[in-house]
């Protein structure tokens, strides 16, 4: 059964890569306002490597957990920068939680997203309100858990959670940064959303589009 879910993880990662190919310039411009301008290129390097690693893992018959772990390790290795290390740690934590043994249920997936969120918070030490990707990821994870617990399908729950992440990422526009490279440029950052929060919300949105066409429960 795990062999059926590995390709879904692969398709999700490919969709995130494709979104980044489209939006890299915009993400770089956002990061240039209060950061160092490399968020688009870093995400491009990371997602290209992650998608290639996922392709290789699936070709070798790997299950979901292994696909996510290999993709995360490649992402962290090739992206450079803070967000690449954090995305890598998140995919690894999700993969370790999901494992390869069986087709993951909706609650397995929401548990894995919760583990990914905890990993990013523990590794990066950012909390909600610091104006980072955590501001989009925490509401995403919390909404996913509550929707799944309420009995929604994974795809339906993911769609609601992704729109919460989008709302939360947009809301970072009015926040002052307390972490990362944007911190010394607080005033410049005000009025611009956090690039890592925006890319995370867009990644979850395109992941939801894949789940909508590939999952039944
Ligand atoms: P770098 O900051 O190393 O140039 P990127 O430009 O790729 O890396 O990523 C910047 C994004 O990383 C920020 O917009 C923010 O969302 C996220 N980020 C930075 N520091 C942290 C942290 N300590 N915890 C969580 N996210 C962080
Ligand atoms: Mg940067
Ligand atoms: Mg950088």
From TrEMBL:
<protein>
    <submittedName>
        <fullName>Dihydroxyacetone kinase family protein</fullName>
    </submittedName>
</protein>
<feature type="domain" description="DhaL">
    <location>
        <begin position="7"/>
        <end position="209"/>
    </location>
</feature>
